[in-house]
């Protein structure tokens, strides 16, 4: 599937269901380069314990370690990811008029047993985050490894998305609660948010 068709498929799914999964954002080599970089940064202790909310509070509800991408000086592997997500952002703006003006992204590593409790990505007092994107970096991931992201679709049902290398999950940040279940091996991903200009504090 070419880029235009792939991105229009995402736009149609977001317009209809509010979420979708894509599998062709990057090549296998590009995905592997991101995984290698994330693993090296983690081994060098460059990832810090994650924090939550506008106040960046430490909490037991979240057990991953992260490092934010520097938009002014991205690495080579990060440039490939950012170029593709920016192209996707432009298509979604054109098709859905979402008003997305920028993105932010970070690596995330969950060690075995770590989790992230059920939550929304839209911050309580900030409406800037419109679209959440999670790109997975784990080759050879099996269902028995655990670590699924549970996406809650309403009052009852949820979908489990396994963190397999090359999978991109997109969903509306203000609409879908989700959680990360514990895994039996290190779980690597990139978390990304496409943002609008913030209207400031919201009720």
Order of helices and strands: HEHEEHEEEEEEEE
Unreliably modeled segments: none
The structure class reads alpha+beta
Distance between the termini: 42 Å
Oligomer: single chain
The Cα radius of gyration reads 16 Å
Number of helices: 3
Report the β-strand fraction as a percent range: 25-35%
Identify the strand order in the major beta sheet.
Answer: 1-9-6-11-4-3-2
Number of strands: 11
Global mean pLDDT: 93
Q: Give the overall shape, derived from the CA principal axes.
A: globular
Largest sheet: 7 strands, antiparallel
Question: How are the SSEs placed, and which strands pair?
Answer:
Layout: H1 3-16, E1 19-22, H2 28-43, E2 48-49, E3 65-68, H3 76-96, E4 102-110, E5 116-119, E6 129-136, E7 149-152, E8 158-161, E9 168-172, E10 178-180, E11 187-195
Antiparallel strand pairs: 1-9, 2-3, 3-4, 4-11, 5-10, 6-9, 6-11, 7-8, 7-10
List keywords for this structure.
alpha+beta, 11 strands, 203 residues, seven-stranded antiparallel beta sheet
Please explain how this structure is put together.
The chain has 203 residues and is an alpha+beta fold. It is built from three helices and eleven strands; from the N terminus they run H-E-H-E-E-H-E-E-E-E-E-E-E-E. Strands 1-9-6-11-4-3-2 form a seven-stranded antiparallel β-sheet. A hairpin with a 5-residue loop joins strand 7 (149-152) and strand 8. Helix 1 (3-16) packs across helix 3 (76-96) and helix 2 (28-43) packs across helix 3 (76-96). The N and C termini lie far apart (42 Å). The mean pLDDT is 93.
